[in-house]
Amino acid sequence: MTQLFRVPNGGLIDRETAVQFAFDGKSYQGYAGDTLASALLANGVRLVGRSFKYHRPRGILSAGAEEPNALCELRGGARREPNTRMTTAEIFDGLCANSQNRYPSLNFDLLAVISLAGPVFSAGFYYKTFMWPASFWEKLYEPMIRRAAGLGRAAPAPDPDTYEKATAFCDVLVIGAGAAGIAAALAAAHTGARVILCEEDFVAGGRLHADRRQINGYAASQWADTALADLCALPNVTLMVRTAVVAVYDGGTYAALQRVSDHLITPLPHQPRQRLWRIVAKHTVLAAGAIERPLVFGGNDKPGVMLAGSVRTYINRFAVRPGTRAVVFANNDDAARTVADLAESGITVVAFIDPRPAASEFLRASLATSRVPLITGVVDHASGFSKLSAVHVRTENGKLETLSCDLLAMSGGFMPNIHLTTHLGGKPVWQGDVAAFVPGTLPPTMLVAGAATGEGGLAAGIAQGARAGADAAHSAGFVPVQFPAAITVLCTDDDALGFAPLWHVDGRGKAFIDFQNDVTATDVKLAAVEGFRSVEHLKRYTTLGMATDQGKTANVNGLALMAEITERTIAQTGTTRFRPPYAPVAIGALAGHHRGAHFRATRLTPTHAWATGQGAVFTDAGQWKRAQYFPAAAETDWLDATIREVRSVRASVGICDVTTLGKIDIQGADAAEFLEHVYTNSWKNLAIGRARYGLMLREDGFVLDDGTTARLSDDRYIMTTTTANAARVFQHLEFCRQVLWSGYDVHLISATEAWAQIAVAGPRAREVLRKLIDPAYDISNEAFPYMAAGEVTLCGGVMGRLFRLSFSGELAYEIAVPARFGQALAEALMAAGDEFSITPYGLEALAVMRIEKGHAAGAELNGTTTAHDLGLAKLLSRKKDFVGRVMAERPALTDAARPGLVGFRPLDTTARVRGGAQFLPPTADATAANAQGHVTSAAFSPHLGQWIGLGLLTNGATRHGEVLRAYDPVRGNDTQVEIVPPVFYDVQGTRLHG
Amino acid sequence: MAKSPQSGTDRYSIFTVLREALRGHTGWRPAWREATPKPRYDVIIVGGGGHGLATAYYLARRHGITNVAVVEKGWLGSGNIGRNTTIIRSNYMLPGNEPFYEHSMKLWEGLEQDINYNAMVSQRGIINLCHSDAQRDAYARRGNAMRLHGVDSVLLDAAGVKLHLPMLDFTNARFPIVGGLMQPRAGTVRHDAVAWGYARAADRLGVDIIQNCEVTGIRREAGRVVGLETARGFIGANRVGLACAGHSSRVAEMADLRLPIESHALQAFVTEGIKPFIDTVVTFGAGHFYISQSDKGGLVFGGDIDGYNSYAQRGNLPTVEDVCEGGMALMPQIGRLRLLRSWGGIMDMSMDGSPIIDRTPVDGLFLNAGWCYGGFKATPASGDCFAHLIATGQPHKVATAFRLDRFASGRVIDEKGMGAQPNLH
Amino acid sequence: MRINCPCCGERSLEEFTYLGDARKTRPAGDAAADVWVDYVYLRENPGGRHSEFWYHGSGCQSWLVVERDMTTHAIFGVKFARDAAIAAVVHTS
To answer: Which chain B residue's Cα is nearest to A136?
Structure first.
């Protein structure tokens, strides 16, 4: 026996395609075209969830994205999706869903005991208690609260599906493919505008499929199908179903989520689960419809209490009877349609309960047709244990009358779906005649049409949509044309609303306003008593509107009640702002492909493949992968490899890829003048064919970067920056060039990736290079001394650049070739150096050698050091204006007591000191007052046979020979070190001139 | 010192909650009075956010100055106190900062008992992840500096991180996790409750909290403050404290002051509520992302500021995507969890990333500003130190570095070393 | 947000990097210290229109001056900073 509650005919379901699914382990059958909610209702399942705080039994309230109750964990394992709304989840064969936030089971939830103590758990009770003793908060109270709170569970493993991002451009974006949206899209499309029509549902048409309406003599559903077919036939229209526009950003940018595969058991091969669209639209029509409001009375959360319009959706679209015996309770005439549809589908309608004193002609006629009695009065409360069994009606003469029923269709009026109109700061406006917030200031290029405007009526909605679509296209530059026939609507059946407010029935039992967060009318009253009267305070104090539905059904009822209690108008009370997204969006979709190894780009040097072949271990330097060391066969430790590499370089020769250093090609008649401004030291006197070390400051006087720049010709320089600052320095130089000294004839090209550059270091470096550099170039020490630079050819005509620079302190060169020759260069160098046992070396060896030579690097160039700190004050020219010159003279930057660069070595030659240790006087207490600086870099020096390092120490330059503590409590180290000058190797610098 | 606000019949406790539960919650008083402005006060604080309310509270509690008004443009707590990611910590590196934030941490630790309000101070720890040797050394430096200040810090290796955070991506990450710096005493606090708790406690000590009272002018005579023009008329006072971060520049302009501050939007995000998933606060070291879980179950996370000047309390899509990319890179299990709400707050981004608590060139006008995105954790100490400055005329001993003239002297407090470019701090 | 680069056309925010107040002019080298402090550290930070530097790093690498409202994010105009800088020099000399 399945689908006992399915109506035999009709609906947008495919009765040929039966679908098996499971809820809480039990198997059911539904049809393709069902949502999980409609399929469960078809099978008579009413209890589907438990509420957040009181664990009250809950059923399905709505048929859309506003659903507060019917949430489940959809799918399982790594694909588990907690808090999934059953009302929007499309079913598929093999779907598996479980209820959540209950223990041990949905039917028997022990935590429902909380409900019994309800009065204690009033709004904000936790702010008033759980304070004693203080330590119990983390140990007892909070873990208890946390376990009880939350809804579903996160997946237990990484998300196995993929997500995509895409960008689309259009002239007119139409949001919502109901009557107004379809009309807008048609009107816009007929002008020739490129139109995108987005519909969050998996079927376009909106309420046209949910209501039995007539348009020009056709059934509304049929009108929708025809109009949509017309639209899809147009080449300039893209209809995107299963696509919710969730957020509005500046400049006509919209975020939309397309559920590509959520209706499948797993995504098809090479398909993402979801796709995030960035839609850039010149103009937009919002036709998002309206959401029905619940009525607030005791027990209004019982499974079986549903929104009246949603009842119609289940009957008409899904061919499901949501109950067997119904009562309708409404403060408007729209619910009369529910009576008719209920009666038509064979459900007994016991009565129409109406708080309005005088019923309209429309209502009387409708009820008479269905032979349903009208009771003027209100539902005082609903009763039933785990689902609705009766409603207790207070009639106009004050009598309480019990009506047994298992379905209550309620309607408290409509709330225009104006979420997206507020994302750019637009404030909704209260419109009394329709008792709703309507769009206020709109985003600059947005129009609103249909029920989202607050004005009801099918014909009016279509007319509004058509007008808005045409206006939007016109604003986007298209010439107006006559509307197509389909949207020239002559007549529909009657629209009647006749709304009269009823915000709250003061009867028995808990009357819920925010169903999911269990916010009741009593909570709102308490908030008012305690002074939380601003809507924002109300929201935050009671959690009204903060659940996964963002209060779509709750907000207006809550603040209307607050207005009533505080004797203000709703307009005076105001409304909270809607926050993006309109409907919750998977984090995976927002991240797209940027996860795991693809989180950020990976930049490989031209010798990467070669280095891999050499067995290199790589490390990350920003986005670059750089060889850290090259372990030899027998070496198991990075330190062994590093020591060997350093020794090889110092004894013979080694090579290291330094491509990642930023390279900026600077050309122009004023290039030298330009360098004078960006570097602290002088440049005009640099000869062609020579390179120089340069220091760059920020305008605030602190060091920005350093590097060498070589002069290749009269008007051409090649600048090198550090790897870390390459992009920032280029941007800074462009600023200097375009803004600060815009009159100069100078141009910059970032050439970092165009050239492969390899350092060749060690006493045999020249001999190796001699074999590669073409004979026409004299690279003898005399012809090409230290800091020489120039263009060369090598290997028989390959263009190259040779720089005699040394970071290692040895005789050394850097040789650059076009990037495509990088690997060949590395191989050629290795072959040429074979007789000298040439050794590839990595970043670790590079670091050891630069520390032995006292060169500042990343840990010293940390953005807080000055030229003085680094011992580079002599590079601050007094003869010119350069970036940072004035601010570098500020008292605090020239204070002699500032930490300055020093070297150190542990007294115990076996001891290791690490970066981050703090310098303290040898006998002083380990307190901040005694701290005098810190270790910036440390390395094992093969030359000295012990760990050494660099640091920044107060009055550093004057303290050589002192013994201090290098205090490193987070690593459990405390070592006595001797402060020494920051050069440990070849102090005279003779080797690099060799 | 004024008497504790814990006395009186509406003292919060389990007993009063039970009593009220039995009588239908009819006995509660408003958490604060809806005060109408008096013609003059001893001190007016501009800004009814966390810092302003805390300042008023400590003025009354520690200095006995109770003739105090807090004027607020909108509703109390409508600024950044109500829109942050609720993290508290004192894991700073520089001597100008660390004692101040530790002072704040100590105040947090006794706050609830002091103000008789459960703000859910939850010391669940923070772990800052590092992804390279250099980053680990930098964290070691910070951790050691914290220890020298008597603050807890633990340097974890990758295995140590995994013990606390098994859900992180240790196998397929673009930037492998090599370790982290942990401060066990750090944690989270229910942000709104801080504003309400201070407001209630200040109110009980006699402070007037005046909402919907926008300041339109700062009236001065002979170079000193005499009061404020407001939407509700002139209110006199010889001492005025500005605590309106996000809008400090706009308010200071009323006294012809220009500040070393830019206003930037910072977005924050929360997911749908889920059962307990992550127990500590975590920051990702290879991208802009940090996360914790609220008591209600939502994952609260954020990233970098949007990067351009803004007074709109919202951001743009690229930052949303960037933040979520960081989240997925760090913990790919959250892919199917849904972002429920995002919002923006306006940050006073100062030129060195550190705050200002100081006098101004206008006599009697005091400034509390420049909190960047770190103001929430500072709330108690900021209030305490600002109250101390206003009451005594001298800076509090833990806030001596937060001077307005430090930019001229060069004594900047630049933890990140980014210089005078606020969007890089 | 989308910025209409005079070289590349309208492009999305993520292609650009923000620097700040574009009304500031770098003082002369011999200007007084407080003029320099003002230039480097003080900001107008207005509630409405703001003239600001943006760098089109993922495009033409032009520095731009964008006129933008800080409260609404509405953009009123975009021009090359180089042209603005030259115009300023012409204007003041």
So the answer is: B122
Distance (Å) from the alpha carbon of A751 to chain C's nearest alpha carbon: 14
Strand A798-803 and strand B299-309: the pairing is unpaired
How distant is the Cα of B351 from the closest Cα of chain A, in angstroms?
10
With cut-offs at 50, 70 and 90, classify the pLDDT of residue A484: confident
Contact A424 C72 (CB under 8 A): yes
pLDDT in tens, A125-166: 999 988 888 888 888 999 988 988 889 999 999 999 999 999
HSE value, Cβ hemisphere, 13 Å, CA-based, for A653: 24
- The answer for A 104-133 residues in CB contact with B (under 8 A) is 117, 119-120, 122, 125-132
A113 falls in which pLDDT band (50, 70, 90)?
A: confident
Indicate the residue of C17, C40, C73 with minimum beta-carbon distance to B310.
C73
Q: Which chain B residue's Cα is nearest to A126? A: B118
Closest in A251, A278, A738 to C81, CB measured: A738
Candidates A791, A974, A564; CA nearest to B144 is A974
Would the pLDDT of C86 be above 80?
A: no
The rounded distance, in Å, linking the Cα atoms of A397 and A2 is 44
Q: At what angle do helices B191-204 and B375-392 cross, to 10 degrees?
A: 20
Structure token pair of residue A186: 């048609």
Residue B152's identity, in one-letter code, is: D
Task: Determine contact: C73 vs chain A, CB below 8 A.
Answer: yes
User: pLDDT grade, residue B8 (50/70/90)?
Assistant: low
Q: Residue C90: its pLDDT value, please? A: 58
The closest alpha carbon to A833, from A992, A646, A655, A657, belongs to A655
Model confidence pLDDT, tens digit, residues A11-32: 999 999 999 999 999 999 999 9
DSSP letter at A2 equals -
Q: Please state, in angstroms and rounded to a whole number, the distance separating the CA atoms of residues A937 and A959.
A: 18
Alpha-carbon distance of A45 to A59, in angstroms, equals: 9
Residues of chain A contacting residue B197, judged by C-beta atoms under 8 Å apart: 127
> What CA–CA distances, in Å, run from A513 to A42, A263, A411, A503?
27, 32, 13, 10
Q: Sort out which chain A residues have CB atoms less than 8 A from C39's CB and list them.
A: 699
What's the CA gap between B380 and A203, in Å, rounded? 54
Interface test with C, best of B215, B248, B311, B356 (most C CBs within 10 A): B311
pTM: 0.97
**Max CA distance (Å), chain C:** 41
Which own/partner pairs from B154-161 qualify as long-range (CB within 8 Å, at least 24 positions apart)? B154/A970, B154/B181, B154/B182, B154/B183, B154/B184, B155/A970, B155/A971, B155/B179, B155/B180, B155/B181, B155/B182, B156/B127, B156/B180, B156/B181, B156/B182, B161/B127, B161/B129
Partner residue opposite C29 with nearest CB, options A734, A738, A881: A881
The residue-averaged pLDDT of A390-407 equals 97
| Ranges assigned E (strand) in A806-896 | 812-818, 839-840
Looking at every residue in chain C, the average pLDDT score rounds to 93
- Give DSSP secondary structure letters for A352-405: EEE-SSS--HHHHHHHHHHT--EEEEEEEEEE-SSS--EEEEEETTS-EEEEE-
Q: How far is B142 from chain A (nearest CA, A)?
A: 7
Mean predicted lDDT score pLDDT of chain A: 96
Query: Chains touching chain A at 3 or more Cβ pairs under 8 angstroms?
Result: B, C
ipTM for the whole complex: 0.97
Q: Does C29 touch chain A (CB under 8 A)?
A: yes
Q: pLDDT-derived band of residue C91, with 50, 70 and 90 as boundaries?
A: low
Cβ count near B64 (within 10 Å): 11
CB pairs under 8 A between A and C: 72
Nearest CA in chain A to C85: A739
A740 contact residues in C (CB cutoff 8 A): 26, 85
Structure-block tokens of residue A534? 């601003």
